[in-house]
Amino acid sequence: MGLNILSIQNLSKKYSQNQVLAVKDFSLAIKKGEIVAITGESGCGKTTLLRLIAGLEIPDEGTITIHNQIVADKTTWIKPEKRHVGMVFQDYALFPHLDIKENIAFGLNRVQNKKEIIHDILALVGLQSYENRYPHELSGGQQQRVALARALAPQPALLLLDEPFSNLDEMLKEQVREDLLRIIRQTATTTLLVTHDVKDALAIADRIAVMQQGKLQQCSYPKDIYEYPVNTYVARFFGKMNVLTGSMQNQTLQTAIGNFPVSRAQAKSIGIRPEHINLIVKNLQVIESHKVKGIVSKIHFFGAYCEVTTRVGDVEIVIRTDNSFEGKIGQEVGLEVNKYCEW
Ligand SMILES: Nc1ncnc2c1ncn2[C@@H]1O[C@H](COP(=O)(O)OP(=O)(O)OP(=O)(O)O)[C@@H](O)[C@H]1O
């Protein structure tokens, strides 16, 4: 277990007396060099959490520790500029009247070898020849790299990124995401990033924290959170999930599409991702050997794959198949579940 760079304990924040908590009893620890993504639906408190860590908001309850120093609790308040935190805002917040090297120099007031640092950081973000340009003379992706360079130049203990890809189109996003990840890894910077886009969270983060109405729902590794979400909110945030309730018999949940052994005595439902069901179409004998049969009710072609909705009794099950699916609506098919989670 490495050293925690950020530790948040029981953090709560309300903007006004008659408002609900924007952040509710939130706890999280981030290890040195880790990249953690905070995600959740709009208004769930992601930005508020980031602003509390940066020192742009004052918490009502809880403790924030950065690099072994308490920066906020009932009796402590450390100013943002003393927290060793670098922040990249959604709109990059570059100073329009300063050129790129002056923008980067902004956080380096008391540093001796300023010129050298600026040169190195511009090389790191691939903008060596742009140091005399002004922000409006750069593309969105380049502006973001300048904002990142400015945040990284003072070598912060913790980097905070607020929706780093929201101003970029889809084509550019992937490249910028790769660049950002390379730079963060190369500098081994501990990073907390806020994103509403689960694809970005899954692609970049070592761990993902999901919030709902100010509360942390789950913080896990990308594969675990995708395959074993703790509840249906987290499950559906990461894409479609077939949820089936059932009754328990001998540690087995009996559902409309078969019986599933479960590990918890109190399990009430199971969740199955559409790609975790095999659809058997061709060989009727094979279908016979599978106890679960359904009737195709909808087929959606999505280019790289097909989504086939199958009715089993009263239940509709969504299955992802490859794009060569040639079945027809009304056709009988067999279903074979190869992975599921339980709640
Ligand atoms: N300055 C403010 N004054 C009053 N309420 C605020 C303020 N900022 C945020 N809120 C409220 O706090 C809650 C959390 O907002 P926050 O911006 O942290 O959510 P978010 O998850 O970042 O949302 P989004 O993804 O839409 O940016 C919301 O109910 C929001 O309306």
Summary keywords:
9 helices; binds adenosine-5'-triphosphate; 343 residues; elongated; 6-stranded mixed sheet; alpha+beta; 24% helix; OB fold (Dihydrolipoamide Acetyltransferase, E2P)
Structure description:
InterPro entries: AAA+_ATPase, ABC_SmlMolc_Importer, ABC_transporter-like_ATP-bd, ABC_transporter-like_CS, ABC_transpr_FbpC, Mo/tungstate-bd_C_term_dom, NA-bd_OB-fold, P-loop_NTPase. GO terms for molecular function: ABC-type ferric iron transporter activity; ATP binding; ATP hydrolysis activity. Residues 6-238 form the ABC transporter domain. It holds the Pfam family ABC_tran. This is Iron(III) transport system ATP-binding protein. By secondary structure, the chain is α+β, with helices and mostly antiparallel strands. The protein folds into two domains: 4-234, P-loop containing nucleotide triphosphate hydrolases (Rossmann fold), CATH 3.40.50.300; 240-342, OB fold (Dihydrolipoamide Acetyltransferase, E2P), CATH 2.40.50.140. The chain has nine helices and 21 strands. It has helices at 46-54, 100-105, 114-124, 140-152, 170-186, 198-204, 222-227, 232-237, 284-289, and strands spanning 4-13, 23-31, 35-40, 61-66, 69-72, 85-88, 158-162, 190-194, 207-212, 215-220, 242-245, 247-249, 252-255, 258-261, 269-272, 277-280, 293-301, 305-312, 315-322, 332-337, 341-342. Strands 6-7-8-3-9-10 form a six-stranded mixed sheet, sandwiched between helices. Strands 16-20-17-18-19 form a five-stranded antiparallel sheet. A hairpin with a 2-residue loop joins strand 18 and strand 19 (315-322). The chain binds adenosine-5'-triphosphate. Adenosine-5'-triphosphate binds next to helix 1.
